[in-house]
Amino acid sequence: MRNRSSRAGAPSRADQVLKEVEAARDEIVAFAADLIRIPTVNPPGDAYRECAALIGRRLGEAGLDVQYVEADGLPEHTAAHPRVNVVGRGAGTGAGKRIHLNGHFDVVPPGDGWSVDPFAGEVKDGRIYGRGASDMKSGIAAAVFAVEATRRAGIDLGGAVDISGTVDEESGGFAGVAHLCRTGIISARNTDYAIIPEPFGPDRVCVGHRGVYWFDIVAHGRTAHGSMPHLGRNAIEDMGAVLEAFRTDLQPRLAARRTALPVVPEAAQRPSLNINAVEGGQSGEAVQSPCVADRCTATFDRRFIPEESFDEAREEIAALVARVAGEDPGRRLTVEDRMVVHPVQTPPGSPLVEALARATRAVRGRDPTLVASPGTYDQKHFARLAGVQHCVAYGPGALEEAHQPDESCSVDDLVACTKVLALGVLELVGPAISRTT
Ligand SMILES: [Zn+2]
C-alpha cells in the first residue's frame, strides 16, 4: 500500500485495519459457521427470514442502518417461503464514493455424499465445513467484518459502505438482488462500486460472465398404433435428427470460437451447448401402450461469449432447426425461448479492480489474476438493472467446492479475503478528512 505509515512510528490506517481483522479471526469464523447452521436451502427457499435477521443484527452492531426488504408482488414470495432480503446502509460522513458489498445467503440443497453434517458449521483442520461454506456464507462474513474492522480501527470513512444479504441467487436472483435493483434500493445514483464475495479465492478477481440462452425445441409428430409406426410420425425420431445436427454441425462451430474474456476454467472460454432434458412419448411410470410418440421436447442451455451477439446465437439455432426440418417433408419443429442473460464485463481499467489489485498485493504479496465466470451470478442485475458497471466478484472459498458434498472454506483464505476487502474499501471509500492528520 501507499502511505504505509502516516507518520514516522505511527501505524497507518491500513495497518490498523489489518490488525483489527486479524484480531477478529475467531469471530469471523464463528459468524460464517452460524450462517451455515441456518439451512437456507433453495429450492424451496427455507429459513430466509431467520438468516436475514442474523445478518441484520450483525450489521446493526457494525453501525449500519438496517432495513428488511421483502419481495412483495413476486410469485415466489409466499407465506410458507417468504423472500426476505436485508440491507445495511452505512452512514458515511461526507460526499465520498459509496460501495455496496452483496452476498446471497441461499444455498443449493446438500445432496448426498457428505461425511459431515452439512448444516453443523463444523470447523476442523483450518477449514469451515457445510453447505454454503464457499458459496457463499463465508463471503458474507468477510464483507461484514471488512467493514467492522474499519469501524473498530476508529476510521471515519469519507463515503459509505452498504452491505446486503439477498435471496434466490441460485434460482436467478429475481426476488433478491434484482428486486433491490428494480425498487431503486440499489441504483447507480446510490452505488459507485459493488463487490460480490463469491468464491473465487483470495488471489482472483472476477470481472464478468458469459451469456445464457435457454430454449426448448419441440418436435410435433402424429400418433398411431405402435405396431404400424408408418401410419404416424414419431416426434422422438425427429428430435434425434436435431440432436445429430447439433453434434455434427453446431458443436464444431462453437468449439472454433473463443472469447478474450479470461473465463476459468479455460475450456469454458469457448461457447457451449448442453442438453438439459429430453421428454417424449409416454412417461416412464405409465402403463405400456403401443403408441407412436406425437411430441418430443428438449431443453437446451447455450452459453454465449461477449464476441457473439445474442441475436446471432439465437438466429444460428433457428436456422439450423429450420434446415433440419426442411430435410424431411412432414417434419415439424418449433423453437421456444425460455430465458436470456446477457454477458457482463467490468469496464477495463475500473478503479474498483485497481483498488482490489493493490489490496491483494498488500495482503498476499502478489497481483490477483483477473478471471471471468463460466456461469452467471448477480453481477448481471447490478450492471443491467441498476446500471452499476463497476462491479466484480471477489471472495473466499473455491468455485470447485460450490454445490459439492463436503463443501468447505479455508479459514486462512476467509481472513485473507476479509483483509483485502477491508483495504479495498478503505481506498475506494476513503477516510474522511481526519481530525488527527
Ligand atoms: Zn454463489
Q: Which structural traits does this protein have?
A:
437 residues, alpha/beta, Aminopeptidase, Alpha-Beta Plaits, 2 domains, six-stranded mixed β-sheet, four-stranded antiparallel β-sheet, elongated, disordered N terminus, binds zinc ion
Descriptive overview:
With 437 residues, the chain is α/β, with parallel strands linked by helices. The chain folds into two domains: 13-209 and 343-429, Aminopeptidase (3-Layer(aba) Sandwich); 211-341, Alpha-Beta Plaits, CATH 3.30.70.360. It is built from ten helices and 16 strands. The protein has helices at residues 13-23, 25-36, 48-61, 133-152, 177-182, 235-255, 310-326, 351-364, 379-384, 411-429; strands spanning 65-70, 84-89, 98-104, 123-124, 127-129, 160-166, 193-196, 204-209, 211-220, 272-280, 295-304, 332-341, 344-345, 369-373, 391-393, 408-410. β4 and β5 form a beta hairpin. α1 packs across α4 (133-152) and α8 (351-364) crosses α10 (411-429). It is elongated. The structure holds zinc ion. Residues 104, 135-136, 169, 198, 377 line the site of zinc ion (ZN).
Strand and helix layout:
Blueprint: H1 13-23, H2 25-36, H3 48-61, E1 65-70, E2 84-89, E3 98-104, E4 123-124, E5 127-129, H4 133-152, E6 160-166, H5 177-182, E7 193-196, E8 204-209, E9 211-220, H6 235-255, E10 272-280, E11 295-304, H7 310-326, E12 332-341, E13 344-345, H8 351-364, E14 369-373, H9 379-384, E15 391-393, E16 408-410, H10 411-429
Parallel strand pairs: 3-6, 3-7, 7-15, 8-14
Antiparallel strand pairs: 1-2, 2-6, 4-5, 5-16, 8-13, 9-11, 9-12, 10-11
Helix pairs in contact: 1-4, 1-10, 2-4, 4-10, 6-7, 8-10
The structure holds zinc ion.
Zinc ion is lined by residues 104, 135-136, 169, 198, 377.
